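## Example pair
The file below holds two records. Each record gives the amino-acid sequence first, followed by its structure token line.
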Amino acid sequence: MMKKEHYHRAFGVYGICYSSHELLVINKGGGPYKNRFDLPGGSLETGESLVECVEREVLEETGFSIKVDEHIGVADFILPWDWKGFTHVHHIAVFYTVSIVGGTLVQPDPFPGQDSLGALWVPKEMLDLENASPLVLKAVNWLDTNELGMGVERYEKWKVL
């Protein structure tokens, strides 16, 4: 008998920081993007605005203080993920371009919910489906085309590494 699909809805805010032909990414330590590159960002805390969230998340995950430059849009992704009784995740992501205004690249402090294993700069040409999250792939496509697109992206054959 086939398992009924059950979707976990995840909502997050993410920063696209691109400099010298490299994208700022994190090594993901948990969730459906574990062991892949992901964008710095994450979930809202109570009472937090979207911009406050991306500023806090980028600082926590990378060590960089940022300035939010532009809201570029929202995209969503659906992929299989066997987690806590869910069969899929429906990830809704708000994207901003951001610029570094201070700080240095640091190893993030561990705390409950911290899923960044550290940040690094990666040439966008080296990012692909084998090593990157759908958010990173969307950011690379946006950097190349200046468009996010409007349809949901479904990754039916997604494998959690």
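Second record, same layout:
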Amino acid sequence: MADYRYVRQTDGFTCGPTVALVASAALDPAYGATVTDDAAEQHRIHAAANFIWPRKLGTTPWGVARVISGHTAALGTRYGWRRFRGDLRAAVAAVECDWPVAMLIGASIPRHWVLIVGHADGVLECFNPARGSVASIPVADVAARRLEALGFPRAFALVLPTRYI
């Protein structure tokens, strides 16, 4: 698979599948090596994650967790989700142990997925699939609802390894 910094979602509904693709490829390099068409894989993941949920409503937290978990079983880890309650300590701990964390963000309603891929000195590195780039976001800005650099101000949910939930 191409370097995740260059992967972009194919349409307005595939941010969740793109985040799941990038996280899965990072955690399962053998899977990542098989991905030759990012766009086709995003749509395959979208269909697999949303077998009941309407695709035009995006991807649910449990769908993103299920996709990533499919690539972490060999590592003895499953992903799950929880609502964001203003505390990122678990997410930071996971990322510092090389487990990417998906974060569902929005304004008044959840609308977009990003992937936390790094942390240093109180700053998160967040992959944004809409832009195919990484933005630096201070941890304090997440709780303060200042995520405009990612396109929306507020976090709604986190998808992370269950040992950190």
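Notes on the second record: Residues 4-164 form a domain with the Cathepsin B; Chain A fold (CATH 3.90.70.10). The radius of gyration is 14 Å.
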